[in-house]
Amino acid sequence: IDTNFTQVDPSGTKFAASIAHSESVNHLVVLTLNPFPTGFGATVHINLPNDATWHLLGALTNDKPSAIFRLSGLRPPRAAGEDVAMDEGSIPALNASGPPAGIGISVEPLDVIQQQLATLPLSRQSALAASGSMLATPSAPSSSNPESTSIRMLQHLYNFVTSFATNQLPPGAHPSVAITNNSWIPVKTFEQWFASVKSKLPGILGTLSGSKIDCLTRLGVNVQV
């Protein structure tokens, strides 16, 4: 347990601490004992050895004053025989022989935190949502907004599908061209599809009163009649 955080800015909203022997750390537990001011929370960041960038891990709020972040899964691809390769978009690994890793805490308004979490890769957002470390998405101001409804529907579909994702093929699965019950889908491919559909939604929704086939084609769905 380390409570030795140091204030690193004049406003008193940013704090940092270090993790010794970070190569042996698999999970990081961060918690706050005192409540945040109303409307505020804190983002949690990690500064990996030999890396000048602070990487966002997640957030703490009064509704979720503690969180567990898995560090062992942050390792990038390495040479054969070393570590298991990770998907593109993973942040750099904890250096086994470098200096300590840094942990940063930044107190921010909840809307700013939500915006920062939304910049994470969808696979990371899904993992945070599954662990309860993701802020609840505010309800749309009107249920009659088709674009907002569609975005929530697609996000729900993504969270459901990726909850079954694995970086190893399960027994009996095969990466063949033919689609069967044992086929698998790379998460990166689904992320690209999600981003493509999201960018096309305004134009797609404008055609809802027209041809259903044209609408599905814009979504990337092959339709045969």
TrEMBL record:
One of its GO terms (molecular function) is nuclear import signal receptor activity. One of its GO terms (cellular component) is cytosol. It comes from the Eukaryota. Residues 150-201 form the Hikeshi-like C-terminal domain. Residues 2-120 form the Hikeshi-like N-terminal domain. GO terms for biological process: protein import into nucleus. Belongs to the OPI10 family. This is Uncharacterized protein.
